[in-house]
Each structure stands twice: as structure tokens, then as C-alpha cells.
Amino acid sequence: MDFFIEYTSKTTGRDKLYRVTQYACKVIGWSLQNSSGYEDVVAKLAKVESHSSTTRKFFRLGRSLESLRNAQKTVHLADPVLRTTLTIAHLNRALFLAIDHYLWLGRVGVVKVDKKWDLSASRYYLASIIITLVRDLYAIYVGMERSKREGKRSSFLVRLCYADPAATVDLVRNVCDYPIPASKLGFFPKHNGLVGVLGLISSILGAYQFANPKYKPKP
Questions:
Q1: What's one GO BP annotation on this UniProt entry (predicted)?
Q2: Does residue 5 lie in a domain region?
Q3: DSSP the chain
């Protein structure tokens, strides 16, 4: 109970749980949409999914500035690969979040927002995911090379998982996140079930990383 209270007392923790709820509703709704007698349930799940998404946008207000601050820090990293990938990823995330703030204003009826802004947000979100994937792969590669130098003998798959556990978890999470913006931009099939399942997996992994910081790559 204490852990749950501490987890939900933080805005990021609540955002992670709302994201799990959002994609869980998406998956369950998709699985029931072709079943007769569940129309009311599907409609209610769609409402919960929509409200969860809007609430998450509210939780993210101001996070664009945090991403800019993170970019200011990573631009001074000694490792050129980490310096480049992380800085560009943070800048793209800052742009995505800035537009996301504007989209939230549209969701709550403060301003009228053109649909093109949603596509712009998806482009920046997709770019940040792809660049972060490069960072994860690089971190895993560095870990595998270190294991080789230390003379540790194991299969490729074992070395892949244990070279850098945090980067491996993050890699899987980002791979699962890829279809969310990619499907909106036409780079991935618009399949609600598949996107929902992958989004749910990435949401659970993100919540797990927040609860266990050792599985969040540093820097």
C-alpha cells in the first residue's frame, strides 16, 4: 500500500498508470467490438480511453521545458554518440510536447485545433523514438563489447539481455511504442488491436521502469 501511495503521489507515476489504463481499454474494446451485446461496454471503454488520454496531456503540461533542460545537459556529454542521440531525442520530444500542450487546449475546448497539428506531434514523437532506439542499441553494443573484453562466454541472446539490462528493457519499450505515431503517419498498419497490444506492453514496461529506476538507461 505504501508503495502504491508513493507511486501515485508523483505526476509521472499517475501518468504511467493512466497510460496503462488507456491502452488496456483500447485492447479490451477492440476485442469486444465485433461481439454482439457489448456495444454499450465498448462505448464506455472508448470514453475511458479518451478521458485517460486527455488527462495524460494535462499531466504533461510544462514537460516540454523539462525536455529542453535535459537537452542542455546531454549536449555536454563526453561520448559523441550519446551526446548526439540524446540531445536530438530530447529536442524532438520537447517539440512533440509543446504541440501536445496545444492539442490539450483543443481537447478541452479552449481553442480550435487543426488536425494537422496531431500529425506534426506524431512526427516529432516518432523521431524521438527512433533516435532513442539508436541510443539503446549503442548502449547494448557497448555492454556486449565490455563483456567480450572481460572474457565472459555466453550465447548471443544471453549477452544481448545482460550486456545492459536497462537499455534492453528500454529497447523493447521503444520498439512497442513505434507503431503508435507510425500508424498515424502511414508507416505502420492502422490496426487498433495490434497498436493497442503493443501500446499496452510499452505502458507496462514504462510503469515498471519508473518503479525500478535501475531499468531506466542513464544518462
A1: peroxisome fission
A2: no
A3: -HHHHHHHTSHHHHHHHHHHHHHHHHHHHHHHTTSTT-HHHHHHHHHHHHHHHHHHHHHTTTHHHHHHHHHHHHTT-SSHHHHHHHHHHHHHHHHHHHHHHHHHHHHTTSS---THHHHHHHHHHHHHHHHHHHHHHHHHHHHHHHHHHTT----HHHHHHHH-HHHHHHHHHHHHHTHHHHHHHTSS---HHHHHHHHHHHHHHHHHHHH-GGGS---
Angle at 53 between CA 52 and CA 58, to 5 degrees: 95
In the numeric block, the cell 515498471 is attached to 208
Whether 176 is covered by a domain: the verdict is yes
Range(s) of the domain holding residue 117: 10-215
pLDDT in tens, 46-65: 999 999 999 999 999 999 99
Flag whether 148 is in a domain.
yes
98-124 pLDDT per residue, tens = 999 999 999 999 999 998 999 999 999
